[in-house]
Amino acid sequence: MKLSNRITHITPGGSDGWEVFYKARALKNAGAAVTELTIGEHDIRTHPSILEAMHASAKGGHTGYAAVPGTQALREAVATRIQTRTGVATGPENILITPGGQAALFATHNAVCNEGDTALFIDPYYATYPGTIRGIGAKPQAIPAYPENGFQPRAADIEKHAKGATSLLINTPNNPTGAVYTPETLQAIAQTCIEHDIWLISDEVYDTQIWDGTHLSPRALPNMADRTLVVGSMSKSHAMTGSRVGWICSHEDVIEHLINLATHTTYGVPGYIQDAALFALNEGSPLEDEVSAPFARRRKITEALLATQNIVKGSPISGAMYAMLDIRATGLSGQDFANDLLDIHQIATMPGESFGTAAAGHIRVAMTIDDEAYTKALQTLLDFAKDHAA
């Protein structure tokens, strides 16, 4: 018996750059005191008030099948949030509630790509992007965004691959680089999509974590509302990573077809989780600010420590919960640096090579442990880099 090519080719053979992460987890499971600066998991957990709302909803009986598109109340709340933040008219008919942002990424590519189509994405990229594209039978094509440009994708690089492409996936604020795309970058992206008739999929799950600049959703740009599919999530904004609740925002006709897809795949999101998400959104910006505050502090800690030395260079940390650090002055690859740091100091980071080729010679640090431990770990990392450079 043989499995389908589609499922067996989601991830290619060979190294995917995640060996350091798996090694760190194995050491930790074996009892080693590993400091993890690897994945984007909050060090605080879901706020107790959200859990109480979830519990009350479940105890109240909202445990059966929920409406596949999402409850009307949650769709309305998400639509209001998006309209308020972007100024684009948005109603519940523009929203599909999904089991997290990852399901939304899979669904959006299903909506716009046929098998064999070319789907573009920016490198460095969130780890699942190329596999998601392969999973729906399309061909992933990376477009590099270089560190010397602050990891802002350049119009000329997108243009090289735009002809014949069906979709373009972007992520701002960006994981893994921390870049927030400027209005000029987004205008250039929009213009390319219009000129080449490309669908734009905009992953905006970090939209509440902005440290420099302003978040601009490309859906708000002229002539982009009908060709943009926005992916959002409660995971990062409300520390609800395990609850698995996200959304897609797009034109009503697109959402109707996506509802049909959800009917035949996920069949919706549990009602009590949707009620908890509704409660969380209704708490407004104070709760979002509380969740994002630790990363704002640690960004300042990072910048202050980087300023004390000249070996490790930091890309602008304009948003999200990560710092992308240039360690090329040590003479090591990101992979070797991360492995050695783990072996010698039990500090786990992600090699830049884990996220494509454009961040080779970098490491990504997740600012996801308490301030004191983070400061100590980052100082150890900088001292380690200094010793290697010497």
TrEMBL record:
Q: Could you confirm whether the keyword GTP-binding appears in this record?
A: no
| Cofactor names | pyridoxal 5'-phosphate
Query: What's a Gene Ontology MF term here?
Result: L-aspartate:2-oxoglutarate aminotransferase activity
**Keyword hit for Cytoplasm:** no
The record's comment on protein family reads: Belongs to the class-I pyridoxal-phosphate-dependent aminotransferase family.
Catalytic activity reads: L-aspartate + 2-oxoglutarate = oxaloacetate + L-glutamate
Protein name per its UniProtKB record: Aminotransferase
Say which domain of life the source belongs to: Bacteria
Keywords on this record?
Answer: Aminotransferase, Pyridoxal phosphate, Pyruvate, Transferase
Note the Pfam families from the entry. Aminotran_1_2
Q: EC annotation?
A: 2.6.1.-
Could you mention a single GO BP entry for this protein?
A: amino acid metabolic process
What phylogenetic lineage does the species belong to?
Bacteria, Pseudomonadati, Pseudomonadota, Alphaproteobacteria, Rhodobacterales
Q: Name the species this protein comes from.
A: Octadecabacter ascidiaceicola
Question: Which PANTHER family does the protein's record reference?
Answer: ASPARTATE AMINOTRANSFERASE
Tell me where in this chain the Aminotransferase class I/classII large domain is found. 34-380
The record's section on InterPro entries has: Aminotransferase_I/II_large, AspAT/PAT-like, NHTrfase_class1_PyrdxlP-BS, PyrdxlP-dep_Trfase, PyrdxlP-dep_Trfase_major, PyrdxlP-dep_Trfase_small
